[in-house]
Amino acid sequence: MAKQVVTRTYTASIRNQPQVSDDLDSLGFAASKLWNVGRWVCDRVWSEIGHIPGHNELTTYLKTHERYDDLHSQSSQRVLQELAEAFAGWYGKRHNGDTRANPPGYRKHGDDHPRSTVTFKAAGFKLDTEYERVRLSKGSSLKDYWSDFTLCEYQTRPDVDLSTVESVQQVRAVWTGDEWELHFVCKVEVDVAESPGEKTVGVDLGINNFAALAYEDGHSELYPLNCLKQDDYYFSKRIARCDDSDSELATRLNQKKSARRTHYFHTLSKHIVERCVEEGVGTIVVGDLSGIREDEENGESKNWGKHGNLDLHSWAFDRFTDLLEYKAEMEGITVEQVSERDTSTSCSCCGRKRKANRVERGLYVCDECDTVANADVNGAENIRQKVAPSSSSLSVNRSNGWLAQPSTYLFDSESGCFAPREQATS
Ligand SMILES: [Zn+2]
User: Fold this and answer.
1) Which of 51, 75, 204, 313 minimizes the number of CB atoms within 10 Å of its CB?
2) Higher confidence at residue 425 or residue 259?
3) How far, in Å, from the CA of 345 to the mean position of ligand 1?
4) 146, pLDDT greater than 80
5) How far is the CA of 220 from the centre of ligand 1 (A)?
6) Contact by Cβ (8 Å): 24, 104
7) What is the reported pLDDT for 364?
């Protein structure tokens, strides 16, 4: 066991909700308005010069805008940063061939503004752990004549004591649909296991195989998504049969569907971390979809989707990566995110990047070295090689055709575990 400082987010309820909810509502609405102004600017800049402004550009455009002063300057900055990240994430997914991904939309709730999350950074909050209170700064245009902050009395879970954490980095005010709650982003010292080894594994996340793993010694594993798809299909059909989508039954089915998805992600991330411990892996390399910017060459068309950023898959990948990171950390395993650029078009054996390289029925075929590999495993191996070069044992394994023959793990919904294909009962 070793001590390590990690980031943890603790949720707290607000004890003086009736006193602060009006203030928090105005801040949440202000964050939505600023987002929409920023979103509109992106549209305008896009039609003028065919480029989406990044976070710094957006801040330059908007810091003199009246909406910018509704929040503390750091909180406003964070809203524009989230918008820029949402655009970058969308580009990344489009770049990776996910045509269902939609660009970030406007924040609307009927004819009204929704209550967006408001983030307060160091200069925007003052924490008093003795009396369990936190002062959240307002922007200059929302200040009342008597006060420029909102004082929230918070209550954390009994096992969480904010006075013992290393530092509190951020406070977020989050609307749950019923009330406001606070999220404290903290640096915390925890006990972690010794790293299981020095080896690396590459992980490619996708929509056919949810995860493909390429280990340093050359073997590979696939985790197909079919069980989750079947599950989703089953529940979607039952929900569609409900007369009223707001009925108790429909709500219950929706909750069950989302609980099962969460269970799948927990189980898969746990399973992968266990496999890494068995294999002596100390570093998991994951493709970071948000790291890819617009591909100049392809010149993305302006075909922006209709429904804002309601994209199940992007949400799922982010959520899964978080879970994996959290579980790996406790086992002393580092998770590194690298750009996925070129990882699906290059040959992981000879590095050849050519349009002529073909993907057929999920196989990647290189016209230079004749490698035939499972396309997702080839991607995972390229991702792995961004952190660690290929080892000598790999070339031996390569000539045996290992890349084309990964082991497949299926989720067995009876036992709730992952098992190699031949053992799975479903
Ligand atoms: Zn090749």
Assistant:
1) 51
2) 259
3) 11
4) no
5) 18
6) no
7) 85
Cα–ligand 1 centroid distance for 398 (angstroms): 11
Tell me, what's the pLDDT at 27?
A: 95
410 vs 271: which has the higher pLDDT: 271
Count of CB atoms situated within 10 Å of the CB of 343: 23
pLDDT above 80 for 409: yes
Q: Please, which residues bridge with residue 7 across strands?
A: 187
Structure tokens given for 404? 């084309």
Higher pLDDT pick, 97 / 380: 380
Paired tokens of 250: 């429909």
pLDDT value of position 358: 66
Neighbours of ion ligand 1 (CB under 5 A): 347, 349-350, 352, 366, 368-369, 371
Q: What is the pLDDT of residue 282?
A: 95
Q: Return the exposure string of 201-235: e unless at least 16 CB atoms fall within 10 Å of the residue's CB, then b.
A: bbbbbbeebbbbbbbbebbbbbbbbebbeebeeeb
The amino acid occupying position 258 is: S
Q: How far is the CA of 285 from the centre of ligand 1 (A)?
A: 22
- Does an H or E element contain 194, and which? none
Phi/psi of residue 3, nearest 5 degrees: -85, 140
| Cβ neighbours of residue 206 closer than 8 Å, sequence gap 6 or more | 212, 376, 379
Rounded distance, CA 318 to CA 315, Å?
Answer: 5
User: Closest Cα to residue 78, out of 108, 123, 47, 43?
Assistant: 123
364 alpha carbon to ligand 1 midpoint, in Å?
A: 10
pLDDT exceeds cutoff 90 at 135: yes
